[in-house]
């Protein structure tokens, strides 16, 4: 049941509003204490009024009790003075006074009903033993009070058993006084308190409404500012420092904005770079074709020579497009890794076998050093890309008679591929940037040897997809060493 109420409340859109919740909290916090206060004050008044009435009546009764002893009323009820006193008392408090003697016999009843009867009630018997009793009957609206009629033994009546000053209970005065006047006063008080309460409720309602509105305003300002950014009016960072909480939200939003701007900038750079890179071979093709077209009677050898150049440029264009496609595919978050257990040593051997002819052309010696056998859970195609790109670069950017050492090693958690060359090296200032798309230390040289500037971007992306890392150590003129470190088993994200 409670669960269903909660569920329905959740569905109610208005309940999800912070403004409504704040309003309700403030409203209830104002109204509930005021209700408790009214009830508390009334109850307190009632008990105090009953106490005061009781002690007034008790005092009167004690005075009359003394008179009863003095005028020996318990034996002789003819005293008019006492009769008048009792009448006055019962009129004053709108009540009934019953006097009971030591034999529990009623000697006087101001209502005249019970005279001569015997009363055996708990209160009377307790009172006979000297205890005052008070009983407040809330439902019927009266207070029942018993006071003992005590005689103190005087000096001339003193005996050995009862020395002077001994108090003897001779009878009991039993009184019930009406509390109608208290109830009436309480009703008037209650009515007045209710009016005050209604006024308070209205005031609290208005205050809570205004406060909730004011408290929530910074959040409205945030949505407005975010809305403006979303609509594209501005891309300035926003500021709503009113609360610590709003500051946190705004800071998080601003960092997101900066990140989005960086991504947007890099996307724009990328598009510009792609266009430029794709344009270069096409421009060359056009220049070559135009120069052929501009000449008449071109000899067949020249045609052939130009066509070879054109074919080379087309091949370059093709390579760039292939690399771009590989990169885009790698960056796609949905691109799942095709994981299998791969023998890295065998894979490296196969790749080196394929690359060695290129190395031989450049007189570069490629050596594979397998420190141990490595079986790893990796994507074989992406792993081949990593190895191929690194070894190809090590050959491409090497010197005549240079060397490339590919070292494979592993510990219990990771395996490492180290590709060290004795090539031209990479200047310190470029070492951070070489993984960027289209970045080349020496643009013309790279292009000359058929580089697209995408190889290391693809490599790094593939390494990261395997939750690995890539590190470079390089000294210009001496050579470079790329170290790739990848977990042996697949790390589940
Ligand atoms: P490219 O297709 O131009 O080789 P890469 O992304 O593979 O593109 O490499 C980026 C740049 O880093 C290269 O242009 C080159 O300047 C530099 N570079 C990469 N590997 C090496 C290396 N082993 N030795 C020297 N320079 C290198």
SSE topology string: HHHEEHEEEHHHEHEEHEEHHEE
Number of domains: 3
Cofactors, ions, other ligands: adenosine-5'-diphosphate
Strand content: 15-25%
Question: How many helical elements?
Answer: 11
Q: State the CATH superfamily name of the largest domain.
A: PAS domain
What class would the helix/strand composition place it in?
Answer: alpha+beta
CATH architecture of the largest domain: 2-Layer Sandwich
First CA to last CA: what distance? 40 Å
Query: What would you call the shape?
Result: rod-shaped
Mean pLDDT: 89
What name does the CATH topology of the largest domain carry? Beta-Lactamase
Share of residues in helices: 40-55%
Oligomer: single chain
Report the top-level CATH class of the largest domain. Alpha Beta
Radius of gyration: 53 Å
GO molecular function: phosphoprotein phosphatase activity; phosphorelay sensor kinase activity
Protein name: histidine kinase
Subcellular location: Membrane
Pfam family, one: HisKA
């Amino acid at each position: 049941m409670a669960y269903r109420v909660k569920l329905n409340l959740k569905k109610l859109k208005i309940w999800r509003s912070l403004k409504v919740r704040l309003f309700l909290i403030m409203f209830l916090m104002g109204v509930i204490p005021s209700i408790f206060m009214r009830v508390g004050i009334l109850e307190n008044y009632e008990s105090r009024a009953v106490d005061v009435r009781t002690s007034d009546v008790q005092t009167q009764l004690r005075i009359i009790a003394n008179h009863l002893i003095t005028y020996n009323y318990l034996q002789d009820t003819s005293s008019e003075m006492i009769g008048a006193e009792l009448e006055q008392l019962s009129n004053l408090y709108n009540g009934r006074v019953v006097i009971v003697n030591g034999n529990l016999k009623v000697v006087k009843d101001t209502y005249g009903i019970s005279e001569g009867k015997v009363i055996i009630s708990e209160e009377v018997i307790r009172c006979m033993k000297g205890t005052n009793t008070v009983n407040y009957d809330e439902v019927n609206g009266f207070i029942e009070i018993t006071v003992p009629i005590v005689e103190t033994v005087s000096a001339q009546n003193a005996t050995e058993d009862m020395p002077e000053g001994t108090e003897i209970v001779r009878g009991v005065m039993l009184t019930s006084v009406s509390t109608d006047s208290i109830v009436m006063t309480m009703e008037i008080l209650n009515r007045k308190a209710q009016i005050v309460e209604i006024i308070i409720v209205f005031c609290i309602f208005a205050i809570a409404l205004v406060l909730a509105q004011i408290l929530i305003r910074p959040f409205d300002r945030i949505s407005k500012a975010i809305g403006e950014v979303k609509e594209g009016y501005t891309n300035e960072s926003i500021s709503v420092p009113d609360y610590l909480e709003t500051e946190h939200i705004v800071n998080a939003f601003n960092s997101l904005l900066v990140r989005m701007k960086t991504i947007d900038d890099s996307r724009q750079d990328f598009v510009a770079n792609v266009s430029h890179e794709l344009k270069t071979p096409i421009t060359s093709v056009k220049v070559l074709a135009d120069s052929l077209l501009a000449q008449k009677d071109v000899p067949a050898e020249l045609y052939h020579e130009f066509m070879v150049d054109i074919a080379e440029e087309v091949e370059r264009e093709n390579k760039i497009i292939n690399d771009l496609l590989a990169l885009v595919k790698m960056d796609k978050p949905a691109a799942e890794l095709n994981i299998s257990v791969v023998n890295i040593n065998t894979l490296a051997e196969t790749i080196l076998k394929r690359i060695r002819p290129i190395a031989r052309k450049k007189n570069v010696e490629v050596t594979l050093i397998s420190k141990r056998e490595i079986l790893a859970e990796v994507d074989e195609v992406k792993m081949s890309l990593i190895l191929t790109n690194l070894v190809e670069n090590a050959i491409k950017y090497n010197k005549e008679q240079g060397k490339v050492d590919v070292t494979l090693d592993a510990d219990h958690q990771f395996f490492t591929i180290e590709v060290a060359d004795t090539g031209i090296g990479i200047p310190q200032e470029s070492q951070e940037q070489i993984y960027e798309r289209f970045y080349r230390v020496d643009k013309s040289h790279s292009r000359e040897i058929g580089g697209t500037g995408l190889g290391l971007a693809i490599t790094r992306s593939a390494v990261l997809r395997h939750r690995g890392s890539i590190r470079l150590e390089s000294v210009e003129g001496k050579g470079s060493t790329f170290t790739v470190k990848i977990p042996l088993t697949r790390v589940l994200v």
